[in-house]
Amino acid sequence: MVGIRIDSLIHPDDGETAASAFETLRIDHRLSDLDVRFRTADGAYRWISWNAIARGDRFHATGRDVTERRTLEEQLRQSQKMEAVGQLTGGVAHDFNNLLTVIKSSTDLLKRPGLSEDRRGRYVDAISDTVDRAAKLTSQLLAFARRQALRPAIFDVVQSVAAIADMVGTLTGARIHVATDTDAGTDSGGRTLRCHVDADPSQFDTALVNLVVNARDAMQGEGRLLIKVRRADRIPALRAHPAVPGDFVAVSVSDTGSGIEADLLERIFEPFFTTKGVGHGTGLGLSQVFGFAKQSGGDVAVDSVVGVGTTFTLFLPRSHQAEVSDAAPDEPEPLAEGHGTPVLVVEDNEEVGAFARQALVELGYEAVWVKDAQAALATIEANDQEIEVVFSDVVMPGMNGVDLAREIRRRRPYLPVVLASGYSHVLASEGTHGFELLHKPYSVADLSRALRRALRERSALTFG
User: Fold this and answer.
1) Domain that residue 213 falls in
2) Contact yes or no for 237/264 (Cβ under 8 A)
3) What pLDDT digit, counting tens, does each position of 250-294 carry?
4) 275 and 417 co-located in one domain
5) Domain count for the chain
6) How many CB atoms lie within 10 A of CB 269?
């Protein structure tokens, strides 16, 4: 170990966290419970939890191997997410069947002869709107199912609640009236108060679903449910802890259910503790909410009256880093014509590949379609000066789209690549490496604009 810099042993993904923690130690002279991965003698990595304090010109530190604990925590998080997905699947299947009914009926009506342009337009609009709703539904499900470590990000709680609210009816059923109140008020200048937090958006969504499911079960399928977002200047005194003043976002879920007995209130956040019958819950839902709140620097409160109802309130520290702007959003870029631009389409799915090629031809592009990465690289080598942009799926047999894009960047630095994916474990674990990403399902307009943006960026780099 003599002569080795400690940062050379830290996992590359934890370098920024460790550097920030060291700066805190240098300024505050103490460090508590910092979990980072360190390389072992055999080249593997272990999670070490550090506590340190400064004394004079030295730092005294102790590290404890917590690899097993971190592994169990990750397994628990995945169990919690899967429980949330399980709660959703039945209702989602019902919703998807409704959406497919609209699409199928509209396509059948479009086939009828003598259809007026007005009616044709209505049916086409119905299909387009329904696809948007279906895409929104799948994006929410994928947010729950992603297998990735906690990734805090600054996001607007109001927007997240609004997105989840669209799915709440699926969870609760028709006999529960659902309402939302996301009006956090205005500041002294009359502007709407923002409710940004710095936390893991996926875990926030999961926590909200768990609270909704809990409320639904407490009401036995009938009653009123209110989701409310507001600003708070303190976390009230909870579980023998004093009140914590500060700037918080409070998200409450209120029901008109059976309520919780006073002697159970102290136990409801314990893992695997549940008052539900066998087969009706694992007891992980509320423990996930509690763990998420504490890990994010907040807390969760519960107020309940037996026979009247219960309110769970999730407190999260408000982020001041989000840039507040009341400027009008940019106008969408108009549909771009291809003007004969050669495009290489890489897509292993027959239907999607054929559609993408035909759509690009209709827009004036010259589209060549291949089904895997090796064929794509061979086509690029054979048509060195002819392919101007590559459009590739991410999930493919053999080399995936991200690796293909990186190989193209190595061979042809100025050949732009646009990736497409609905969801990919590759993207969740590795990211896009700076390549343009088009989310499925995409529109023809979205595809054309993404290609034109990539081409413009290439021109800027080439002729800069």
Assistant:
1) 72-317
2) no
3) 999 999 998 888 878 777 776 555 655 444 444 456 777 887 888
4) no
5) 3
6) 20
